[in-house]
Design brief:
The protein is 30% helix and 24% strand. The protein is α+β, with helices and mostly antiparallel strands and 194 residues long.
Length: 194
């Protein structure tokens, strides 16, 4: 399911405020004039469905080499958990920003973890990861209606995990490095006012 089929209700977002919107089906979007696509792309880039500050969450998934990665491995850092698929155009569009964000922050305060959320062979996925120069860990998961972080109403879906391991936000739709930087800076100020 593409992110444009979701019904979103935002409570915490990269952009301050609260929105509620019913999105059209992917078929409708692709059958209309190309005029609507840039408009929807801009709107979707800012749509977020928030995760209420929750207890720390931990779970493990294997990467392409079979090595298990756990959220607890990254405790003390902001973790950007991005659910995506190779067939998803918005997912492909956000990859360069996620790579740039990860490369800039991985030795410091944040990391990106990509979770491939489709039924695809490892060889085909490895080829895709290599062709897109993805430098962050890519983990494997079968498409499920819910994950330990919450539901995945569409792709891409990105969760932001605070350094203490608790989920603090969810966005359905693409994210940018700037949105992630701005959100993390805002949350730092909220969590450490002073």
């Amino acid at each position: 399911m593409c992110y444009c089929r979701a019904m979103l209700a935002m409570t915490d977002s990269l952009i301050p405020g609260c929105l509620r919107i019913n999105l059209f089906s992917r078929t409708w979007l692709h059958n209309q004039d190309n005029f609507f696509m840039p408009v929807f792309a801009v709107v979707f880039a800012f749509l977020l469905a928030g995760a209420v500050r929750a207890e720390p969450v931990d779970y493990s998934l294997p990467d392409l080499k079979g090595v298990s990665h756990s959220l607890a491995d990254y405790k003390g850092k902001w973790v950007i958990v991005n659910y995506w698929a190779t067939w998803c155009p918005p997912c492909q569009e956000e990859i360069p920003d996620l790579v740039e964000f990860h490369d800039r922050h991985k030795n410091g305060d944040a990391v990106v973890i990509g979770i491939n959320f489709e039924d695809i062979g490892k060889e085909q996925l490895t080829s895709f990861v290599d062709s897109f120069l993805i430098s962050y860990p890519v983990l494997l998961s079968e498409p499920l209606p819910s994950t330990p972080l919450g539901s995945i109403p569409g792709l891409p879906t990105t969760f932001i995990i605070a350094p203490d391991g608790s989920p603090v936000a969810r966005q359905v739709g693409p994210v940018t490095g700037k949105q992630l930087d701005d959100y993390i800076e805002r949350k730092r100020k909220e969590l450490n006012p002073g």
